[in-house]
Every structure is written in structure tokens, then in C-alpha cells.
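Lab notebook: predicted structure, single chain.

Context: the supervisor wants predicted structures on file for every construct in the current expression panel, including those that have not yet been purified. This is the next one on the list. No modifications to the sequence; it matches the entry in the shared construct table.
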Amino acid sequence: MARMGSSKGSRRVLRQFSEEFRVGAVRLVLDEGKTVGAVARELDLTPSSLAKWVQQTRADRTQGKTGLTTEERAKLATLRKDNRELRMECNIQKESRGGLFRQAPGVVFAWIDAEKAEFPISKLCQVLRVSPSGFYAARGRPESAHAQTDRRFACWCARRSRRAGSDMAAPGFMRT
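Prediction complete. Output recorded below exactly as produced.
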């Protein structure tokens, strides 16, 4: 079989065929009794492609008794995609241990930033019920004045506690 392209061992160029062309090629095999190989050579097709078209047409003609019909294949592809999405959502919830739903957005955004290599950001935001725009805005946003004050206060409390010789801060204060 002649190969398209000039270099030896190169792959055949991926071509698109109209539905009428496919129907005509399949008709030559099924209705006129020609072999798949003969029709493939005659039309410059790969035998595997033509055989796949013939198999699909047989399944459609017999309402699925000889394989999956076109509708069933489309439904199966949709179900596989849905299954992949649900597995991803389940894995995100397992990774987050379910506790991120009650956290402040900053904590959730920090976790999303840490997990973005593992999962798509849009899916992380959807499962954790935060907006992607909020995530992106928080990444570029400097620390708020309130957060800066809280951090300074926590440091002040820790210093004061160390000076007093105590290992524990005053009740209700976080140590850093």
C-alpha cells in the first residue's frame, strides 16, 4: 500500500471523510460482497478504518445484536465522562477531608493553590463551593490589614509569653 508523505516509516496523514463517502464504502462491502481489503485498496483507505465502519454499520442495522449501536456508543462515552468527573469530585473531597467547607476562604484558597497540580482549579472551586474568580483574586491580593494586625498581635503575645517564662500564651490567643 502506498504511503502518504515522502519519508520512509512516517505515519499516514489523518484524513476526514464525509458521511456519504463512508456509507458508500460500507455499501461496497456489505451490499456488493466485496472484501474489506479490496475496497480499502480501491479507495486508498486503511483496512482497519473500513473494517471499523463496517462493524459499526452492522451493529446499527441489527439494532445492537452484533455490537454497540452508534447511540449506545455515544451514551457510553457520556457515562464514562460523567464517571470520570464524579471520581474526581470524590477524590477532591477525600483529599480535603471534608473540613475545608467550614474554613475561611483564605484557608480554602491556600489548599486549592497546593492541590492545583493534582486537579483542575475550576473543579476544585466547584467542589469546595468557592468561585474561581475569588481564588484568582486572592492569589494576587496582599495580606489584609486585619490579617496583618492579627499576625502582629500573635507575635506580640508569643514574645510576651516567652519573656514571662511560660510555655503557654494567654487563654484564647494563638501561638505562631
